[in-house]
Fold these 2 entries.
Entry 1:
Amino acid sequence: MENSPSTWRRTLDQGRASRPQLEGLDVYAHRLRGSAQRLSGTRHRLRRRAKRVLDLGRFYQDLSNDALRETAVEMRTLFRCRQDKATDLERAFALIREVAVRQLGEKHYLVQVMGGFALAQGSIAEMATGEGKTLCATLPATVAGWRGMGCHIITVNDYLAERDAQWMGRIYSFCGVRSDFVHQGMEPHARKYAYQADVTYCTNKEVTADFLRDRIILGPNRDSNQVLLARIVGTQTRRLNQVVQRGLNYAIVDEADSVLIDEAVTPLIISGPAPNTEQLDAYRQAATLAKTLSLNVDYVIDMKYREIKLTPKGRRRLEDQTAALGGLWRVSRRAHEMVTKALTATAFYRRDKQYVVDEQKVVIVDDFTGRLMPDRSWRDGLHQAVEAKEGLELTPVKDTLARISFQRFFRLYRKLAGMTGTAIEASQEFWSIYHLPVITIPYNRPCLRRQLPEVIVQTEAEKWDLIVEEIATLHAAGRPVLIGTRSVQASEHLSRLLKDKQLDHQVLNAVRHKEEASIVSLAGQQGRITVATNIAGRGTDIKLGPQVKALGGLHVLSADKNESDRIDRQLFGRCARQGDPGSSSSVVSLEDELIRRHAPKAYQRLTRWKPLTAKGLFRTAQHRAQRTAQQQRRHVVRSDQWLDQQLGFTHSL
Amino acid sequence: MAQDRPTFHEAWYRVADLQPRLLSSVRVFRQQFRGQIWHVLENTANNQYSRLNANAYAFVGLLNGSRSVAQAWQIGNEQLGDDAPTQGEVIQILGQLYNSNLLYVSLSTDGEALFKRLQKRQSRQIRSYFTNLLFIRIPLLDPDWFLNSWLPLFGLFFSRLGLLAWFLLVGTGLGFIGSNFKELFAQARDVLAPGNLILLYLTFIVIKIGHEFSHAFACKTFGKLNKNGGQVHTMGVMFLVLFPLPYMDASSAWAFSSKWHRAVVGLAGIFFELAIAAIAAIVWANTSTGTTHIIAYNVIFVASISTLLFNGNPLLRFDSYYVLSDLIEIPNLSQRSKEYIHYLVKRYAWGVTQARQVATSLGERLWFFFYGLASTAYRIYISIRIALFLNDRLPEQFFFLVPFFIFSAVVGWVLMPLGKFAKYLFTGAELQRTRTRAIFCCSCIVVGLVYFLGIVEVADHCRVEGILEPEDLRMVYAQSDGFIDEFVDSGTRVTAAQILMHATNPDLEAQQRILAAERRRLLVQLWIAQTEETVATQILEEQLGALDEQVARVNTQLADLRLRAPIAGIWHAPELWRMKGLHVRRGQKIGQIGSPDALIMRATASQAIAALLKLDQQVYIRLKGYPQHLITGHFTLIAPMGQENLPSPALAYQVGGDVALRSDDTGRPKTAEKIFEIRIDLDVQAPETFRSGQRTVARIDLPPQPLLRQWYRLARQLFQRRFYI
């Protein structure tokens, strides 16, 4: 299977299509435009269109399966040839809706059709959890499939990609659209086959990594003219055929806020063995040297900014000791760097806190969630320094072969759309970075969630006591409870406490997505207690057990506040979906991570003195945390821009 | 210790495998600055330059088009050790070369990026026009062929012989100027007279064209000598404060390897102007009046003063600044001085430990510090001076332009820098750790400024100029006609009723005698009549009465020939001694007597000041030219109505006062705007040095006000005067 010339062009000239970052006054003008758009009543327009789709439904209802299929083929031609008009989209949606009824027995609600239009016009659809985002995405995805330029539906994990692709696959195949999915560990040719599909379900990590791998395969001569010439000459056919993707045309991003904002600045790096490895011995030597230096004499530690500085005395001592060593130690700057790294590894990286040693390997522990990250490693020799400190075998230093941040990657798509339960808080950022307007889609049925007031206690111990007590009360009443924690440690801690009280419960840590999805789907059964870190079992509907509705539905208890109130809202959104009853509450303490990390010290003291101000304290801490994160993201954009300007002679991607 | 130079860079993978090299049209020149070797890379195809230090150049030298960047970096590390550029620095070097269009990479060129760069450069240029309306450059033509064809002749001046001739010429000129210094100075007032402005401007243009050509020829001459550089391809018009002036681009002189050659090119314009000034001085000294004389004077004025004040002043970014920065081997002195001062602030006031140090040696640090302060102060000073000069001198019909200037200046020099600064202060990444301190520090300064300028009340005062006069001043007029015989010398202190002058009048004396004889005759007739006819007696008695009256009148007139002092005081009749034996008429002014013990000051106040004055307010009076004497006084009279006549001509602008005059229809001088006369009585007896007729200045204390309010008032008054708002 070979890409056509036009596909090559689209693939290789990808970067050109992305809109440039704005500068100066343009930024404000753009912001103004965004605000104007938000006020312009897009929602009403969408609703009118969706109503028309519902009206058209009657017509397709009466068609036989064959007639319906035939109409789908006609539409496919229409869309592929770009002969479609605005009304055709409405007809198409009505048809897909009918197909969904016949194939899955599920019918798109009005709000889902509205969401479909929002996605089709390239915006972020904010739809409450449980409103059926997966089904909603089939509307624009089928149409994009008909257009034949590829459509990626980005999910948060492999399990969801597979599940959705198979679940929705029947709609697609009925409409004459081939759907497929990509998951970890897939062979390149299978990947290629999956990307050739009209609709491809994949995770953000896979799609980005495949993109980078393609770029590496293409090598430096990846100008579209050169590649097309090479194809004609036929010299590099094998190499070119290894390219798996066929251009980034249209993506629908599920959980758009977490992919496009929270994880946006994490770069995805493809690395390979370094051709010119620094002598690994040097790391061991550095670790030994570091031990001879003494704190506050030879070096000082800046706890706040996590920095180590050698004092002049330390430098002299180091130079004396390394004089005989040779190798990279001859270069004093390198020597300082190596030793500083070794010191950093001892001072800031603690075993079982920042990392664990598993099968003679250093495995990074995620700072926020406490999850193990076996496929990650620290950069610039830090990983080796930590290994040297632990006396383990050193992994060879790797060189970056290609890297890209998700933010940059998703901006490459010609058309981008997203759906999530919580977006409005970040609408400013969606607009300024991705040019994506946020459209809030109304609830299908009024939301019956009772938000109980937040309980704030002084110490962490008090907090856990209170949480366990509350769980016990709710459990006694027979109501299912879902407890959201921030980190693995916290969920394990709570699990121990619950065990002590002989409360039967399930713990989810977002490691094995499939099993967890089934556990979460049962979290609504009577008397269930489920402890989950925030993102565990995402994308799975929690259906209530038979009697639970009468008892008051699922109760969601938040044991921690997150850096962003968006994530808090996501958690609460797990109860009271689709017009079910439900309630949510949160118990937090002044010793929480959020407060320790982000609240101003003076404010903390004030709160201890005058507990009335506690609410404001949490708000301030969240606000500051979000601002810091936002600044960081903006900084990444800016330094990317600077690099592109400086390195315009290289390929920017 | 230098800043952190991390070895690795996250974007290294993007350049590591490339095999770039310098474009084949790049030529490299070696230069030395403050003992450091620099390499100037010139792209001969488009006249773009870039400067690299020795280590960076060593790295760039390793790039031969077949070595990859990673290999070159490795070799560099082995050869240079600590000094080798880090990955980040390599990226920066390559970026710098790329952005100056000096780099060749065998990838297909990104045409779009190329155009983007061009667009960006153009838009930056256009933007700089708008933000900097006071300095606009428009390139017009390429003078290269012209310069080449005339080089054999004019190039001769840039030689040892030429320098000797120049010294001789300038020496002669200075000699002439020295011997006519007073006249030169006296004529200065006319130079800026409205009638001369056009002539002055034409002179200016001609001289500046010569100035530019001088640069160009010097550049050509030394370019030949150095076998490189010396291209002059651009000539155009620059609008300096809207005055069109010529300019030429002799920047290719930067490629000369000798800094003295570069210096000569930089100073060539000044050399030329001084030579012209010297010639003009010789002409001026040897002509008396007429157009030649005036033009010569203009030339001296333009070619020496303006040159030394602007081009010769390294504090402004004209010729000698570049020469200075080149000679002391600190390129970009002005910019880096600013950065250094900024660095000092960041490092010591804000506590940014990562602040980038721009100075590499103590010498540079001193230069940066003092130059930075001096040039900033001078720039502010000269900007204000230019603004005030324009305000005073710009013809009325161009005055509508002033708001544009002010707008451009306020936007370009105040708002934009302030905005940028605020943005930096609140979002700059550098300040991330010390933002609170920096903001606190700046707030303190702002609060301090607001407090001292806006809240603290500072004594406010204004000054009026006036003239001293005795409180009691009497004119002495001749009482009757006569020939002056004797008199009291002018300047003598006289008592009241002392005789000041004695005149004789033979006519009167004769008349007296005739009248006496006539009287005797009448007496005789009277006697006769008394005896003979009583009727006639009555007539004669009446005649006698009339005659007596006549006699009495003559006697008085005779007595009046002795002129007496009406009051005690100093007798002042400077011309009297010339008049001995001359005839004076009755009513003719002889002199005046003033009492030196009670002086008053008569002053004028403009409308703006008069409104602020109050009767009985205390003032401090000093003599003009004798600041050591101070006496106090107070207002006794403020004229309720404006007038157009000066109390004394000594207060007019033309003779050194501060009131401008104009001629009215009849040709009599009138004040340009209405003035208000003020009378100030002295509180104490004036000391000896205070004499009648001296010009004095009275300082009037106004109620204390914050400085901002005072300045605001001044600015408003300034505006009001020009715009009649």
Entry 2:
Amino acid sequence: METITAASGTTSLTWLLIALPLAGALILLGTGRVTNKWGHLLGVATIAGSFGVAVALWLNLLSKPSEDRAVRQFLFTWLDLGRFKVDVAFQLDQLSMAFVLLITGVGLLIHIYAVGYMKGDDGRRRFFGYLNLFVAAMLLLVLADSYALLYVGWEGVGLASYLLIGYYQTRDTAGPAAKKAFVVNRVGDIGMSVAIMLMFAAFGTVTFQGVFAAAPGASSAMVNGIGFMLLLAACGKSAQFPLQSWLLDAMEGPTPVSALIHAATMVTAGVYLIARSNPIFDLAPTAQMAVIIVGLITLLAGGIIASAKDDIKKALAGSTMSAIGYMMLAVGLGPTGYVFAIAFLLAHGFFKAGLFLGAGSVMHGMNDQVNMRRFGGLRSVMAITTATFGLGYLAIIGIPPLAGYFTKDLIIESAMARNPIIGGLAVIGAGLTAFYMSRIFFMTFIGKKRWTEDVHPHESPWSMTVPMLVLAVGSVASGYLLMRNNTLEKWLEPVTGFVEPAGSVAPAVMTGISLAAVAVGIVAAILLYLRRDVPQVAPEKVSFLVVAARKDLFGDAFNEAVFMRPGQWLTRSLVWVDNKVIDGAVNGVAASLGGLSARARRIQTGYTRSYSLVMLSGALLVLVLLAIVGR
Amino acid sequence: MMGLPAATQGLFPVPQLEYQNLAPVLIVLAAALLGVLVEAFLPRTARFRAQLVVTFGGLLIALAALFFAGNTDGVIAEGAIAWDGPARFLQGLILVLSFVAFLLFTDRKIDPGRDAFAPRVSAVPGSAEEQSLTEKLVQQTEVYPLALFSVSGMLLFPAANDLLMMFVALEVLSLPLYLLAGMARRRRLLSQEAALKYFLLGAYSSAFFLFGSAMIYGYANSLRFSEIAAATSSQSASEGLLLVGIGLISVGLLFKIGAAPFHEWTPDVYQGAPTVITAFMAATTKVAAFGALVRIFYVAFGPVREQWLPLISVISAVTMLVGVIFALTQREMKRMLAYSSIAHAGFLLTGVVALSQKGVSAILFYLVAYGFATIGAFGIVTLVRDGAGEASDLSAWAGLGKRSPGVAALFSLFLLSMAGIPLTAGFPAKFAVFSAAAASGASWLVIVGVIASAIAGFFYVRIIVLMFFTDPQDDNTTVAIPSLATAISLAVCAGVTIVLGVLPQIGLEVADRASLFIR
């Protein structure tokens, strides 16, 4: 376990990371129309400031020896009630630093992009207020030094996500989508709160340091229980099976939101939670196995869903689910996987954000259409978007030497080292990824033009293309920069530990196998979507798998059966209890006091004499009770 | 004693009074008397301004006097009054809460008839006299001295160190409240009914208190709390007198805090009284009465705790459940808030059951959280109106969030605090009383409390849902633009609720330091 020192010097600026965007959110949401004109610029400026602080902190950490990098900044004691004590304090270590750089860096690019994308929207100031609120909450989530404070950030990002999914209030579909995300996330939050209560009951503390120090002494049932509850929480926030269904509907939000919250940052909070809780999961093999299974199911399910969606954003959302499935699989592998999970997470932050911004750029030029069956041939009019999207596409499917190759392949290798079945499924996932991403790219940018009559596609303004270009550079280079000379392994090792995966298959062979899978995927996509014409209307006569995939693999039906119907049944029975039992009891008590049920309501509405009668009976009861106890 | 002739010294023992420590009470009393003079001698047009100066000036000077009165604990005024942490804390809290509530009194913008009080209380409701007074926009200002008299009693109540002083304080605080409850400008019959009911039942409960005091005197041969405590440990007198005395005194005090089964006046009086008066008395009476209740049970009856702990535990549980269950079915906002305040009395009683220093500090903190949220909530109730005055029925509040998001958000904040949701003051308050009770072994009571909190959460959140997610049913409801004073009052309440929610440690530390009773 590494040592954690108190923040001083540069690191005492940690609080500013959160304070800047929070102040931005308060000003933007609190001032009303006054700030309409320049509010969005303030929103960008606070994130830029935060990013500047993050870089300064990072350089400062780099200058120290690796085991002395973690610092804790104590702000104040929030609650001190004897045994139960919660501080507001931040823990800045290598893991949170990586997330802080990702959140502020990608966040800054997407804020800049949104200036152009939301131009002409009446609520642009409110939109930037919500975005700033999100960044502040997300930073709180990754900087918290205890599960209690993490929970505050956890709920904060949930709130911001809810507000932003429902941002287009005039759309009929936005409201239900926001509600769905809200409700599904509550199911996950139950896991979070139960986990915190279990920790408090078992260890008497909820700080990371305290819990991790005490965890080895706890029973295996307790550690596994906490692990399962944390996994449930992670499934809700990271859209993992069985709580995945909200993410596809969440695409109702503005595209910069999909890029920032529902691709690059918030949905990876579950991965962060499990990577952060690594000392618990390393003690809980059963829970760890569950993490692997959840990751595998989701990475395959997400790939299948993404392969059948015609809505470009929903196809990318399926891809996000699948990619996070890879990360979950990796964190489930334990010390061999944590570093690779974070590496893929960081690289994914670049290319998935870039892909979403590319999709937003396409929508911007195509009158906000999302149906890929009416796209095609866009490369001729949108050169920059095609190039940046194309680089993101090559990166995510793992073409060397782009980011996905360096990061995803390592996950597949470690999975194979653990178990050939796990590894095999991960390889199939890689093939699926190649297929659906090729499908998206071909249907949108290549092939014949299938545009509707009224569109005049054009390239987006520089405020949108510049962030896309920067992200494309990241998609190309981040993998190499992170993995070269084991940079990230050395950086994260003090927090998460690292064990070299010892597989029976040589790395070069593994790379060959996964590249072959990728080739199969691409070829299949070429045969289906380049050699043949893409119908402008989705075909009706399709196989069961496509039907299932179009329906999100019956995720909604699952939710309905498992959560909604029991929930409705519970509410209904509670209402019944309220009507029959509680009202009945209330009436019954009142009636027996008054002596006559017909006068039950009068006791409530009225006479001083009956009130005094009740008081007198009460006084007599008091005396009787005292007499019984006093004897 | 210096100034008296030598001959009288033996005949009249001159009491030694610590004027410095008594100053807050005396200043408020003096301000009240000055207010009476203002009513008697100034022309009607000048009275309002003069009363404002006297009332708010008096409260501020009293606060300053309290601040400079010194922190040395001791028994003062010949043993009749205790000067200790809880007394000072509660006196300060009562002064601040009164100040904030009085700001609501001054509003002359909300109602078309200007302020919230009847132009002449003696005028028959609906009579021609009343009509002409209303048309002439006649305003009366007697509420200010009356309320100040009540405040002086409240200041004395939690500091009283013998039963007689406690009884005097009880009456001084109650009598003006009975009058104030009857002064509503609108729905006057309801208001007068509430006043009479409150008076009759209040007198009835005072009789219990006085009778109980007599029993205790018979048992301990003294009314002083410390001597009662000493008598209980000497085991000489008859146990029966003590038990009957404890029982009857409990009835008197439990009536004041609105605990079941002595709560039934609460919804009627809270509903009938002018809403600003309800805000004032719901907050401050509960603070004062809990101060007195805790002192008497900790100091005088502390040694015989086994005798009364089961009783107070049962009453606490019953009060919580009665409050939340009856609140579930209310259709009227003020009655709902009344039942909610009954439930809070139950939650606070769990802190009494804790019978520890942690319990006292938890109660003190809870009273701060409860007091400000209550004034804030009733303050909002005065703003939401229809043609006939305040829109009291819950249906009128539907969709308020769409028309007046600010007012609805503020009301939600106060409701969330009452429900005990984190990041509002209500959460650490409830957590503190429950953990104090659990630490003292009253786990079953804490379980009942958590269940009651869950039920309570349901009806608080129901109103928030009603405001934000339900479409308005009619368009009669309007939200009045308040005066600056009302706005300041609401802002203070919201500020305290948020600050103590985000940084509860500030309040908890002050409460911790003030939690030791002098014996």
